[in-house]
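Quiz preparation item.
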């Protein structure tokens, strides 16, 4: 079985699972023909339907954002393993089904632009107050963690079990001040409207 056939089986599987109107029934029949022709079992289908996709990032926050979006949008995380490219390229590689990839990529393109603007608006002035590159980088790192958690919360990109209460009596005065200053962060508003984008040939 070559890559072209694997890709076609993956598309047919997507249509059989998430297609509209009559295309779902037609796709199911085609999928059954592929299963018979290539003697495929369920595990074979599982291996075929996912491809490895690469997501580029330029900062720690963008890397965190990719992870958060996968965790939020992908219902079944079983078998989804993310790993970074270690060849000097800032990329995360994730095995996903096609429609899941489209959903995550669309959300990522929106949220990373919106998040960057909000971070600059809320934190850039504070970072510029630092005199040296070393202190600026340190201050940026301090603000990034607080900002990111508040941004994800404001954007509703979380599940209930992920919410953790922070005991503010145990944080430093500096961190408490940062948290209060970042309280009014504007979250992103994103509606997923993804069609299959797949057609039977």
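Solution:
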């Amino acid at each position: 079985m070559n890559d072209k056939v694997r890709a076609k089986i993956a598309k047919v599987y997507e249509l059989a699972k998430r297609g509209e109107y009559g295309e779902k029934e037609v796709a199911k029949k085609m999928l059954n023909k592929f299963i018979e022709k290539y003697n495929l079992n369920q595990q074979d289908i599982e291996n075929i339907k996912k491809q490895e996709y690469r997501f580029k990032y330029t900062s720690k926050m963008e890397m965190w954002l990719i992870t958060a979006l996968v965790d939020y949008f992908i219902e079944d995380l079983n078998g989804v393993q993310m790993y970074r490219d270690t060849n000097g390229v800032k990329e995360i590689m994730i095995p996903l089904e096609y429609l899941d990839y489209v959903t995550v990529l669309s959300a990522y393109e929106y949220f990373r632009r919106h998040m960057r603007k909000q971070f600059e608006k809320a934190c850039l002035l504070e970072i510029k107050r630092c005199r040296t590159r070393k202190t600026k980088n340190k201050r940026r790192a301090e603000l990034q963690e607080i900002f990111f958690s508040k941004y994800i919360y404001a954007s509703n990109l979380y599940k209930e079990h992920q919410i953790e209460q922070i005991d503010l009596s145990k944080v430093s005065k500096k961190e408490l001040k940062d948290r209060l200053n970042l309280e009014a962060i504007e979250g992103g508003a994103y509606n997923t409207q993804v069609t299959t984008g797949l057609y039977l040939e």
